[in-house]
Amino acid sequence: xxxxKQNSPSLSVQEGRISILNCDYTNSMFDYFLWxxxxxxxxxxxxxSISSIKDKNEDGRFxxxxxxxxxxxxxxxxxxxxxxxxxxxxxASFGYGGSQGNLIFGKGTKLSVKP
Amino acid sequence: DAGVIQSxxxxxxxxxxxxxxxxxxxxxxxxxxxxRQTMMRGLELLIYxxxxxxxxxxxxxxDRFSAKMPNASFSTLKIxxxxxxxxxxxxxxSSSSTGSDEQYFGPGTRLTVT
Lengths: 115, 114
Description:
- The structure holds two protein chains of two kinds.
- By secondary structure, chain A is mostly beta strands.
- Chain A has strands at 4-5, 10-14, 19-25, 32-38, 45-51, 56-59, 62-67, 72-77, 86-93, 104-105, 109-114.
- Chain B has no helices and eleven strands.
- The radius of gyration of chain B is 13 Å and the shape is globular.
């Protein structure tokens, strides 16, 4: 049973507009959430994260929102650029600190930003 | 820093053969993770090590898979014997216990078993 779900396998957005990627989770014990970006033939790269004690974290064009009551998080990219075209993975963990180990990933959403 | 290094980048082998995937984590990182990515199941954690000790291998699919970390700078994932259903991209990642849960991924090894 998937604990982290990304229900949209793909998303297409016009350059300059907002991209919103969504992620739902089932386990209320998750303590930390991350977004990774993956280009073809490369490994995932860390993009932005949020602790469960916060509801928003912003880094440049990227903002992650967390709604704990709904067990939902979203990644907003504003403005979207063609270079943002990639697969975006949502991930969750039970603790803070790399030695906690287990990141549980969603299956990813492929974002296409059209010029 | 060179990042996480994986070899080979591509591996094509015949069913029944032994396959060994290699990983060099980022220097100073003390946690190492092996993932497998397939279309059906996405990114799955196979095993992770902390300070060279296997902590959780519950994701290892079966006894044909084994992983070792003989020292802080090297890990292997071995499949013996390999089967066509093992075809996937295998990623190694590392992280530091003094930091966040952010893991740094290698470029992956694309394994094809015919």
